[in-house]
């Protein structure tokens, strides 16, 4: 059970606020913050936090449903218990609240006994699941995904998070939210997946795709770059990394680092002509980059064209005479030329 939990009570009806606060106090809890305003409720959340949120549907300024959506789009309140109080609720509101991951909707009149029972359930830890039960529930969620029963699958994975947290669960929740067009919530899920497994390149890639769908190209580029950086540490992932870098180019066709990196990937694969094509594109963006000339020189060296290699390595050294890697390769190239070696076919 959470010790000394913080409660946020938000309801425009003063009598209802008083009733809820007194009901909580009768349980022995004293850290309660109350307001009639949805805007103030969000301010309180950001300043003080909360372990349980009890919120009326019809708040001042922003309503309870909007506050729920804002909270669920925040890393800190993605899983915080959120009870929504309502006199009357439409079918559409029920659907929207469910999509936003409301914990429960309580329709008035509400007795103190019923409210206390729900709060106790929220604060008491659930009974442990053994590994077989966890795997069974995870498989159930996966099967529902395969059947494209997205909302049902999401409920299963949310239930599973009460017992067990993993990158796979959060990733699946992110994927479902993406399919349903809830890109803000998807980003939160994918971030949580990446926090658990920082080598999960596909989570970064999905975050980038969500930001692109939201029209935020700067963040999309940032997360595509993170995905590419993770893949660079993995062997045998060159093709996938190249695909990600091409996505970066869609938002910024003049990204010199992307051209350069694509050239490196092609060189490593032995596709020297394709590598040189990317390096030439990089030079058009930045014609005074010694690293590009070095990579061109290395590409020619590995292809067996030592004259072209020497020429480009010399240019790299003209730009930066302290470029030690370029100097070493230049000396090796000159030895090859002095030995009378001729260009070899690529």
List the defining traits of the structure above:
single chain; 346 residues; alpha/beta; Rossmann fold; Serine Threonine Protein Phosphatase 5, Tetratricopeptide repeat; 17 helices; 5 strands; 6% strand
Architecture blueprint of SSEs:
Layout lengths: L6 E4 L3 H12 L6 E4 L2 H11 L3 E5 L7 H9 L9 E5 L4 H9 L4 E4 L4 H12 L7 H16 L3 H12 L5 H13 L3 H14 L4 H13 L3 H16 L5 H14 L4 H13 L3 H14 L4 H14 L2 H14 L4 H15 L8
Parallel strand pairs: 1-2, 1-3, 3-4, 4-5
Helix pairs in contact: 1-5, 2-3, 6-7, 7-8, 8-9, 9-10, 10-11, 11-12, 12-13, 13-14, 14-15, 15-16, 15-17, 16-17
Label the overall shape: elongated
Low-confidence stretches are: none
According to DSSP, the number of beta strands is 5
State the CATH architecture of the largest domain: 3-Layer(aba) Sandwich
Mean pLDDT: 85
- How far is it from the N-terminal to the C-terminal residue, by CA? 68 Å
Tell me roughly what share of residues is in helical segments: 55-70%
Approximately what portion of the residues adopt beta-strand conformation?
5-15%
CATH superfamily of the largest domain: Response regulator
CATH class of the largest domain: Alpha Beta
What is the rounded Rg?
29 Å
Strand order of the largest sheet: 2-1-3-4-5
- Total count of helical runs of at least 4 residues: 17
The fold-level CATH name of the largest domain is Rossmann fold
Give the number of domains: 3
Order of helices and strands: EHEHEHEHEHHHHHHHHHHHHH
Structural class by secondary-structure content: alpha/beta
Biggest beta sheet summary: 5 strands, parallel
């Amino acid at each position: 059970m959470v010790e000394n939990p913080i409660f946020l009570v938000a309801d425009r009806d003063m009598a209802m606020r008083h009733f809820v606060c007194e009901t909580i106090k009768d349980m022995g809890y004293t850290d309660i913050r109350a307001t009639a305003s949805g805007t103030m409720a969000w301010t309180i959340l950001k300043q003080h936090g909360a372990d349980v949120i009890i919120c009326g549907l019809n708040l001042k300024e922003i309503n309870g449903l909007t506050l729920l959506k804002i909270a669920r789009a925040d890393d800190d309140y993605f899983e915080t218990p959120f009870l929504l109080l309502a006199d009357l609720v439409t079918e559409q509101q029920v659907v929207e609240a469910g999509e936003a991951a409301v914990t429960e909707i309580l329709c008035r009149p509400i007795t103190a006994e019923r409210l206390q029972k729900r709060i106790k359930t929220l604060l008491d830890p659930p009974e442990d699941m053994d590994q077989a039960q966890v795997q069974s529930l995870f498989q159930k969620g996966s099967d529902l995904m395969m059947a494209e029963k997205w909302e049902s699958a999401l409920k299963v994975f949310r239930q599973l998070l009460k017992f067990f947290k993993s990158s796979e669960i959060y990733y699946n929740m992110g994927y479902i939210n993406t399919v349903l067009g809830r890109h803000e919530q998807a980003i939160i899920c994918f971030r949580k997946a990446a926090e658990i497994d920082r080598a999960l390149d596909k989570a970064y890639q999905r975050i980038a795709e969500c930001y692109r769908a939201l029209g935020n190209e700067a963040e999309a580029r940032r997360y595509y770059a993170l995905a590419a950086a993770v893949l660079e540490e993995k062997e045998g992932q060159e093709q996938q990394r190249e695909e990600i870098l091409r996505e970066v180019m869609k938002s910024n066709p003049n990204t010199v680092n992307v051209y350069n990196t694509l050239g490196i990937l092609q060189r490593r694969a032995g596709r020297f002509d394709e590598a040189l094509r990317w390096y030439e594109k990089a030079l058009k963006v930045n014609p005074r980059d010694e690293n590009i000339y070095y990579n061109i020189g290395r590409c020619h060296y590995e292809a067996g064209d030592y004259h072209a290699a020497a020429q480009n390595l010399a240019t790299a050294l003209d730009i930066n005479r302290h470029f030690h890697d370029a100097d070493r390769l230049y000396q090796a190239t000159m030895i090859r030329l002095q030995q009378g070696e001729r260009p070899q076919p690529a």
